[in-house]
């Protein structure tokens, strides 16, 4: 019998059982587990929409809450480019498939065809009037800008 290794036998020693692996990897610093960038970005986007909802409910603004959240995101994104980089992993795929977000409003329009036909004349007048107004204003602004431009 060897004092350093124990009893001498011809069989190799049994391997030690492997330690169980954690389900989620822990960061080296011992902090919280890693959150994927897309999940973090989606959480930020939903948080801004929730903030918009809260502001609309508190102030009774006649503006959709999602629009208020988007304006807040735009304002803070212009102030902090770091926020834009944090939201980008979720924003890029959403923008890539933006056409899918128009399906529910398109279905809603199709379900309201009788109402739209009843109001066809006022709707046509509003669309034609706003188009004409915007075209005239754009033309006037362009003419004023061209008059201010020095001639070559």
TrEMBL record:
Residues 10-25 have a biased composition (Pro residues). It is found in: Cell membrane. Keywords: Cell membrane, Membrane, Transmembrane, Transmembrane helix. InterPro entries: LrgA/CidA (IPR005538). It is a multi-pass membrane protein. Residues 1-32 are annotated as: Disordered. GO terms for cellular component: plasma membrane. The keyword Transmembrane helix applies. The chain crosses the membrane at residues 35-55, 61-79, 123-142. The keyword Transcription regulation does not apply. It holds the Pfam family LrgA. This is LrgA family protein.
């Amino acid at each position: 019998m060897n004092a350093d290794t124990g009893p001498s036998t011809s069989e190799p020693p049994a391997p030690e059982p492997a330690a169980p692996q954690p389900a989620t990897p822990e960061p080296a610093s011992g902090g919280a587990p890693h959150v994927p960038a897309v999940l973090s970005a989606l959480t930020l986007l939903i948080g801004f929409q929730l903030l918009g909802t809260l502001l609309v409910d508190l102030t009774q603004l006649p503006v959709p809450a999602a629009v208020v959240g988007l304006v807040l995101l735009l304002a803070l994104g212009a102030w902090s480019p770091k926020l834009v980089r944090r939201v980008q992993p979720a924003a890029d795929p959403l923008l890539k498939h933006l056409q899918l977000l128009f399906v529910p409003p398109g279905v809603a329009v199709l379900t309201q065809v009788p109402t739209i036909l009843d109001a066809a004349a006022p709707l046509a007048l509003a669309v034609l009037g706003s188009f004409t107004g915007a075209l005239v204003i754009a033309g006037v602004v362009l003419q004023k800008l061209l008059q201010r431009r020095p001639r070559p």
